Amino acid sequence: MQRTKTLNRAVTQRTGKLNRKDGIHLLLLATPFVLFTLAFSYVPLFGWIYAFFDYKPGIPLQQTPFLGLENFRNMLDDSRMGPVLANTLALSLLSIATAPVPMLLAILISEVRSGWFKRLVQTVSTLPNYISWIIVFSLAFSMFSTEGAVNSIMMKTGIGSPPVDILGNYDRVWTVQTLLLLWKSAGWSAIIYLAAIVGIDSEQYDAAKVDGAGRMRTIWHITLPSIMPTFIVLLLLSVSNLLSAGFEQYLVFSNVMIADRIEVLDLYVYRLGLVTGDYSYSTAVGIFKTVISVLLLFSVNILSKKVRGQGIV
Prior knowledge:
Blueprint: H1 2-42, H2 70-77, H3 81-97, H4 100-111, H5 115-126, H6 133-144, H7 149-157, H8 173-198, H9 202-210, H10 215-240, H11 248-253, H12 259-262, H13 265-275, H14 279-308
């Protein structure tokens, strides 16, 4: 009996040493990423102090007049904030409305039986993610401008005359930009769902086939319920980033005909800071966007805990 206790104690000590050793290895592996996050995500937060000063480039901060919350109060009187927020919310909500498309794409790819065709479809659908927005604009301009390929074909076939300016259409600009964003990101987003589909236990499909279920029934009763938690998490994260629409896409596609409908919050901050040189006010607007995003994140997290019983944070 005493020998058994001694043996168990030795095994426990040995296991504890191995766990501590593994923990140290994991900590060392994580250290570069933690330092990277601190350097590029948290150290720049010290720049928020410029929102409280009337900062001018070249003048030391200690010689700059202190404004307090004046820049934040100015946002209430800014006539551009309303349209910019409306554009941001509209484009973000349209993007969220297309969120099921990558999931459906992943299901279709997973159902392809031919291995080479599956790899071809996945590569072709993922490729646009690696193309910069400048090149996307060049492709879109060559296709959809008044002298582009689409209008040329329509004119020659007599379908459309005069040519339609798709990229300069004030009423359709939100739809066009949403479709371009979907084309660029759907294949990349589908990878997450493909990983979730691969993780589904194959015995569930075998049991369904034995019960006589066809493809559509297995998709409806096995695949969709299995990847739905992934979809919910990504959807909630999208809601928390409602005000973070990005600016590269809207910067390159902006022109005089659609500029008022395409100016989102990130693009507005970029122009305030780097075009007009109003660093203090642009920083205040950026802080406003960050605070709202954090509040949205915690709100959807609370909602997720109440509805699903588990949160995303």
